[in-house]
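Entry for the shared binder. Reason: the reviewer on the internal report wants the predicted structure included alongside the sequence.
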Amino acid sequence: MTNPTISTRSPRPASVTARAGTNIALVKYWGKRDAALNLPAASSLSLTLADFGSETTVRFAADAGESGRDRVAFGGAPADAKFAERVRRFLDLVRARAGLSFPADVATTNTVPTAAGLASSAAGFAALALAASRAAGLRLSPSELSELARRGSGSAARSIFGGFAEMHAGARSDGSDAVAHQLLAEHAWDVRLCVAITAQGEK
């Protein structure tokens, strides 16, 4: 069972909104065996939070974006150039898989401070993976979504699932076996994780 939720707002071209929870690593993977594919050097274990995360809306269409380029908004304002380019590279993966050439409108918001150690990028790219793939007409399995999300952020592979999730380091050079799976569902244990936000700035 996947953690992100989804709603489709219009038929075609679809505007799709997905939400995913941030995950807190209990056992970190520390390091990558392939930086280009975001392949972890070791397996990892995390707990996905139900009430903190990201919401992302994606629409692919000829009239989306500006001058044929993707338009990326973050928190209601144009995203900074570095983040926008990271999102565009990720969307290129989705377009290549779906055989699309349309630009996209992307709007994302976080319920946790960005770059503050609360895995906002994990939730963000998990939500983006689901919203973008569905908006592109793809229907990916949880394992395929995990692999796709990993390309945006290594930890995002775990945010596809609720509860406790394990990320496998994998052994294949193409990264097809470097995916996460759910160990325990959201309500299997009565577990609480307390988060104290002491500052809003980047770590």
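Summary line for the report: The chain has one domain: 5-184.
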